[in-house]
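Person: Please comment on this record:
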Amino acid sequence: MSKTHTAIACTSVGHFDAIQVPTESPGDHEVLLKIECAAMIPFDTYVNDYGYITPSFPMIFGFSAAGTIAEVGKGVDDLKVGDRVTAYTYGESRLKATQEYSVQPRHVCAKIPDSLSFEAAATIPDNFVTAFNALFNTINFALPVPSSFPATTEPPLAHSPILVYGGGSTSGQYSIQLLHASGYKNTIVTASPKHHDYLRSLGATHTLDYRSPDFVKDVTAIVTASPGGNNDGKVDLVLDCITAESTLNAIGKVVSPLGTLAILLPVKEGDKVRGTEKMYMELPEQMKGLIPQGTKVLGVRTFFYAQDEFLRDNLMPKILPQLLETGIIQPNKVRLMDESFGSFKDRVGAGLDLLRNNQISGEKVVVKVRS
C-alpha cells in the first residue's frame, strides 16, 4: 500500500483541490477504511464557501463513507479485512470521506449486507445518526429505545402526534423510519407533495404540504382528532430537520408552549436548506420570538453523539447493522457523481454545485471515489 493517497479537500475559503495525504495505520480500536463512495451534504458547502467551523485547512469533505476494511487495529475483534462497512466520517480532516483511505474509530463503523451497494450505504450514517440522536438521546427527545426493532410493545406516546418538519430531507426520512419501527403511530410529516407517497411508505401517518395556506388548520385538525392530542391543537413534540427562519416561523404556530422542539443545527437565516454566511449553533435572539414562550428548544449536536455511552457502543456497531439486515431501514435515494462527471475532483465539484444551488430534494449526493 502506498504511503500517500488522493483526497479532495477545501484548501482555503472558496477553493478546493486534489491533494496527497498520508495513508495511516489504524491505532487501538480503529480500522483503516478503503473508501469506495463518499456522501456529501450542505454542510460541505458551508466549509468550502465560508470556512464554517473549520479551524484549519486543508479540510477534506464528506461526513459519510462506504467501503471495505483494509486493516484493523488492536482491540477490534468484530471486524476483519474485507468486511463491507459504512462509516460516520466526522471530525478532523484525516477522518473525512472524500479520500481513498481513512482511519476510523471502530464505533463509527457499521457492517452492511452484501445486498446493499456502496452507493446506497454511503447515504446512511450521518443523517441516520442525526435522526437517532435527536429522537432517543437522553439530552434530546429521550424517547425510549426499543429492546428490538420493530418494537414489540407500544411506547408511552405511541398515539401522540409527533411533527417531523422537513420529512423529505435525508434526516427526515430516517426519523420517519425510526419512529415507525419504534411503534409511533401518529407521525405528521411536512414535505413537497411529490415526496408524500414515498414518505407514507416509510411510515408517515399524515403528510402535509409545508407551503399550503391551510398548514396550521390541517395540523390542528389532526391533533384535536388524535387520542393522544391536545385540545388546543398544538403539538408537543416537533423535530425541525431544516432549521431555517422560515421553518421556525411555521413551527411556532403549531408547537405547544408546553412542548419540545428539537432543531437540527445550524440555524439558517431565510428559507433555504443551503446556508448563508450567517448561521448559528443555537437559536439566535432575533428568532426566539418565533417560538411560543415556554416551549423547550433543543439544539441537536450530532457531532457529540458519542458522549452518550449507549449510543457510542451500540448505534453503529450493533443497531444499524440489524436494521439494515432486516430491511427495516431503507437508505436515501442516490444522486451519483460517477466517472461521467470527470475526475475525482470534478465529481466532488459537481456535488458541491448541486448542494450550493439547492438542486437536491429527497436524495443524497454520493461521489464515487474510485474509477
